[in-house]
Amino acid sequence: MDYHGELADQCQLSRKEPLVADNTKTKDDFQTMLRALENQLLDVERMAGSVENSLRTETFSLLQEFRSKINDLRSLAVVMEGRIPYLIDDSDNKLKRKFALLDLLVLTCITKCYRQFIIILTNCKTLPLGAEIVFNPELNILCDTRERLSRPAYASQAASGLLVDLDSTIDNIHKVIDRAIPLADYTDLASYSGTNKLQNARAVD
Q1: What angle, rounded to 10 degrees, do the helices at 136-149 and 61-87 form?
Q2: How many domains does the chain have?
Q3: CA distance 54 to 74
Q4: Which one of 58, 85, 99, 132 has the minimum C-beta count within 10 Å?
Q5: Among 92, 121, 201, 106, residue whose Cα is nearest residue 162
Q6: Region of poorest pLDDT, from 70-79, 119-128, 185-194
Q7: What span, in angstroms and rounded, lies between the C-alpha atoms of 11 and 5?
Q8: How far apart are CA 176 and CA 123, in angstroms?
């Protein structure tokens, strides 16, 4: 799957509408964040193919690194969204449209990448020990993405079938978590051991 080519083409389209030229520091800062968001998005998209290949060999270490990049990407998008009312006045619609497009691309990228990952995971014969804990962060990412994509501003612009794919992916990751072997719970054993030690100490006294 050509993750890089598809997303690079969409980002190239987003550049056809130039950023607003403005000398104010706040707008310059926001433009800098827009470029950072785009660069991080392309970095995530470039890594997706490697993660997919590693999962096919039932190697899961790259998934954690990918998750970290996704969280950085999401955090930057959320920070930028919160700053829009303070950094841009109502006349600066070009910057708002630029951010809205990139944010939608972020959500689309997350959906498409994890859709491929989870399909592979559902077919894995073995999962890492404690997979229910390992994959819960992915479930949180997908649920947050679902909430954002459901907003009216994005629901009308998202590609047809994107939410359906996302819902299917969320269902599949639940299935992966459900069939994972849970970590052993030593809580009762520790409590039992502590009780025995106390009883032995009393016996010695």
Answers
A1: 30
A2: 1
A3: 23
A4: 85
A5: 106
A6: 185-194
A7: 10
A8: 9
Residue 119: which residues within 8 A CB-CB, separation 6 or more? 172
pLDDT score for 20:
41
Give the C-alpha separation, 138 to 135, whole Å. Answer: 5
Question: pLDDT digits over 150-164, tens only?
Answer: 988 887 888 888 999
The label of the residue with tokens 């950094």 reads 87
- Per the structure block, which two tokens stand in for 78? 């959320």
Tell me: pLDDT of 71 over 90. yes
Residue 199's pLDDT is what? 55
